[in-house]
Write a structure and sequence with these properties.
Length: 389
Amino acid sequence: MDWLNALLLLVLVAGHTELLITIVNRTHGLPIHVGPLRHFRHLDDLMIPLFPVLLLWRVGLGGPGLLVGGSWHELSLGWTIYLTICGCGAAGIVWSAARWWLQKVPAQQTSQHSRILKIDESLGDRPFGPGPYSYLTKVPFNEILQVEFNEKTFQLDRIPAAWDGLSILHLSDFHFSGSLRKPFYDRVILECEAMQYDLVVFSGDLLDDVALLEWLPSTLGKLDARLGKYFILGNHDWTLSPDRSRAVFQEHGWQDASGEVHAIEHRDHALLVAGTERPWMGRQPDFSKVDASGFRLLLSHTPDQLPWARSQQVDLMLAGHNHGGQVVLPIIGPVYAPSQFGVKHVGGTFWDPPTLMHVSRGLAGKHPLRWRCRPEVTRIVLTHGTSEP
């Protein structure tokens, strides 16, 4: 056995896997319906384990026989090209992991306080149901029932001093599917009701089962805020009667922010709340018709709208969609994220002047699995101060 070649082939297998995951991440950030994406993902999942078998058969033991004393010079042109590409994929793993570990919380986030609510301990029950992929709830160390309640303070110079302490409850990605039964959401909402906030927003992906829209009135429908409550929908809502979802949201006092700019007068200053569901639905909001001096708050389901937000001089952007990656591996970090930027914006706070973006890990997901990536509810507190480090 040539152990050096075995190690090199293992690195190339990792690179191949990274390439396939990169393709999955980028395609899932496009306006493609869930059905075709699901079939593509199944094909991708099949190709990941088949490649090592093919590599062992055609390169390791057969062909040039790299594991039994063969030479790399004996590789065919086709294998040489593809394995070179796999080498680039392996380098991508190193780059992605390094970026994950070196990523710093921007100076504009001046504090964070967190507490964990273990829903099963609070309820005295594990509120799992027979929804899709419910078998994942049995995965050891699954953190899906450990909800992290965060309070983050953001300091920006365009926040009026009169607004110091203004708070926003940021909710995202509830994914009603049945894998988590309603008591899970009831308990989270009960906790939210006990919190103090001036504005509440929901940044998309309410449903994975349209029949469960009936859960909205007694969950999100119970929340209230003195400056209002605003929502957008996400890609999972896109094919599940979005007009009906909008209607139920609005029946319970929520304002639809998609493609609109809502002006809220607060302490003699304008708070402009806008929303975008692009690239799946609707149009971009038009900031040109409102008070140019107003503080611009954008709800976007995907963080991929950050370049557009920056072009519109958005001050604060609140997003979800990427679920923190749901699974965060040791050393490597998150792997999957349905984004044109891969795992760059899976969750957390990002400063790309002039826009500060907060990406929620969300409360759930179609796949009820969280590992080293707890579900999240965030209370954001705004204070006046410089936007530069």
